[in-house]
Amino acid sequence: MLEITFPSPDIAVLSGRLDGGGAVSFDTRLLPLAPRPSPLFLDFRQVTFLSSAGIRSLLQLEKKLRAGGAHLILAALQPQVAQSLEISGLLAQFAVAGTLDEALALQRDASSAAASETPLPFAGHAATAHRLPAPSAQLIAWNPAPDGSDAASAAASLLPATLSELPLALGQGGFGSSREEALDSFGAFLAAGSTVILAPNGSGQPDYLQSTQPEAVSFYVSSALCVRGRPAVFLRVDAEGMSFGEFAAALPAWTARFLETPVPHLAFILYAPVLHNHGSHPEDALALGFAMADPGTRPPLLAQFRPGDWSAVSPSVQLLADAIRLDGHLPSDARDPEALLAETLDPERFLGVAALRPETRIGPASVWIYLPEEFRPAAETRLKIELEGDLVFPDEWDLITRRIYSDASRVVLTRMSGGYSATTMRADSIDAEGRRMIPTVLKISTLPLANAEVSAYHQHVKKFILNNSTVIMGHASQGSWAGLRYNFVGVNGPGSTLSWFSDHYARRTPEELAPIVDAVFGQVLWPWYGQTKRETLRPFEQHAPATRFFPDIPGEAKRVLGISPDAPLLRCDELGRDLPNPFHFLLHEFPKLRSWARPWYSSITHGDLNLNNILIDEKENIYVIDFSETGPRNALSDFARIEPVITLQATRLDNERDMADLLIFLEGLVSVSPLKDDPPLRYAGDDPMVEKAWRMLCQLRRYARKTVGGDDQPLFYWLPLLEWTIPCVYFVQLSPLRKRLWVYSAALLCEQIQACLKTCGQRNTP
To answer: Is residue 13 assigned to a domain?
Structure first.
């Protein structure tokens, strides 16, 4: 229920819920008050809820008030109400004050400013103007493209930019995810507020990009002029019948008279109906222009633009201007340029981008005049991205970095690691005030992987293991790439001494490693593994190793090792017997078993837990990273993922003797159920890493047993172990001899899997 009282004709106090029912009362009581000449104040102190229906009523009232030259002022918004407007992207549509007294004070200031309007004829036409408070403006020049007609030079001249870097700008550019794509849409553009509209060369169909997040809108710029800041003068001129050339020629001198100061250069926004030809219907236009009163003293930055870019509209004044052609009507009062842009830049109204010709006729106009105090090249105003070493940095990565580090003026990127799917960099950044910010990590990967990591982080990481993981501080995407901004983990942040668990594993004794294993699996990740859910799983579908990373394991085995997937058996001379051919099993048996289902335990799992995804700081604190594969899965997946790392990769394999010894060791590991007993240590060699692997493996399997409460279904351990063993043919860091070891290990696992299937049966019933 919504109650409305009126302490004065200009103030309405609302109390209750502005929802669907409240909107009916709102419309009945308040809409009849518009149009009106003065603003209407709404006191929201006692409004507890705002729905979309209520927001619609607010927009309707605001529109009716603007039609009469007034506007709506919202005062004392409660946090939940302000949040509703912010989420809808409409908070900026309204004038907002913290309290009713502040709102009234703002209006008094505005009324005082309006009262100071000065009538001053403009080129023989009636006009009024007033000074705007705190004017300040910069003129930013994006260097024009070098002369040259070939596509390669044209593409190279294009600069990737975001709309937030061009708040009010006109120039030449194009849309696309690359320079080459941008050339296909190349043409004149005009950027205003949160919109950029483009007129591609050779096409009459305009195109546009629009967003409530200008930093997320990107396009490619060849040359442009941009004005940034606040206007100095607001002008209303009855320009009926005036040509645009007359307007532009008179504007610098008129502004100088009004301000009583020389005006050699200015920028302006013009909002007016235009008539391109006699007898045609007028169109609304929103124009952005730059005028020079004395071309002979052109600033160096403006001199970079070719003479053909400028039009001479009088013997002394030169002009650079474009307009967005609009289908619609002007508001009767458009004092605020930001409000104007928000109201008028409706994509349904766009007719195109067109240069206003000197002979084009204009009607009653609203004009904002900016006086640039400084002229700067775009390179000085943009984020400076510096690359250390041999980093290759595509345009998409450039745009991603600009979005993620929009709070910085400079960022230095140094490669930390790079692999198949991601490049990780240290980012040292400085803010706009020259202050050094804490170093962070920038990770750029393919879009699907980054999206999966962001989703996994929010769903599975920050709710359970936040204190022992990295924190996503920002993310952005462009084309097929995406970037994530992470904090540095460690007790001392970027000053911490961090090392991989793999480093600790290589140099520390089993007794020293045991507490680390307990910390990782029994503490840090136990909020995942200790909360299992029993449900029906399809293990052969879930653990099928033929993923996006390993598209054709049987084919690769034949190419790399000469093992045909058509042969059901594989001879192992070291063990003196035939083993199941794992590639035959993968190619011929896995498809038959995809629908095979059984009840089992699922939990959140990391999905790619290896010794390099676990970090340890100088205080022995544990941190887990890289969550692109994290999600609900067979609860034993992570334990099985670690096993081949320590048994097959971290052990010595220099010759055939080592091979024979390791195969006896591996045969012992699969001789008992991993969910029932510790395996025997069968090893005749002298590599101490084997015993270390065995002791850690026993520890891991005990945690696996604890995770599933002692339920003995070894198939659900052997399958994820096979999943991470059989793709060995794709592991380029493995020698041919070590790949053979991995293959035999996979064969031993297939032997156990076949035995499990015979024991439990292959019927597809839970």
So the answer is: yes
- Res 638 pLDDT > 70: yes
| 75's tokens | 């005062």
Sign of the alpha-carbon dihedral angle for 153, 157, 160, 166: negative
The string of pLDDT tens digits covering residues 506-520 is 999 999 999 999 999
Give dist(CA 250, CA 247) in Å, integer.
5
> 116 by DSSP, 3-state: which?
coil
| The predicted structure's pLDDT at residue 305 | 60
Whole-number Å distance between alpha carbons of 730 and 734 = 9
Peptide bond between residue 35 and the one before it cis (omega within 30 degrees of 0):
yes
Terminal Cα-to-Cα distance of the chain (whole angstroms): 53
8 Å CB contact between 415 and 397: no
Q: Where are the beta strands (DSSP E) in 23-131?
A: 40-50, 72-75, 95-97, 118-119, 127-131
Q: How far is CA 263 from CA 127, 287, 498, 763, in A?
A: 19, 20, 59, 88
Pair 322, 394 in one domain:
no
Verify that 408 and 523 share a domain, yes or no.
Answer: no
Domain hosting residue 484, numbered range: 383-488
- Alpha-carbon gap, residue 510 to 229, rounded angstroms: 64
Tell me the C-alpha to C-alpha distance, in Å, between residue 562 and each of 497, 559, 570, 730. Answer: 45, 6, 12, 14
- The dihedral through the CA atoms of 19, 24, 28, 32 has a sign that is positive
b/e burial code for range 595-616 (CB count within 10 A of at least 16 → b): ebbbebbbbbbbbbbbbbbbbb
DSSP string, 623-640: EE---TT-EEEETTHHHH
Same domain, 320 and 363: yes
d(CA 21, CA 203): 49
* Contact (CB, 8 A) for 714 and 755: no
For 56-100, the pLDDT digits (tens) are 999 899 888 877 767 788 999 998 898 888 887 777 678 888 888
If phi over 0 gives left and psi between -120 and 50 gives alpha, with beta otherwise, what is residue 43? beta
pTM of the predicted model over 0.85: no
The C-alpha atoms of residue 6 and residue 109 are separated, in whole angstroms, by 23
Number of H helices, E strands in the chain: 24, 38
Say whether both 685 and 668 belong to one domain.
Answer: yes
Task: Give the bridge partners for 218, in sequence order.
Answer: 162
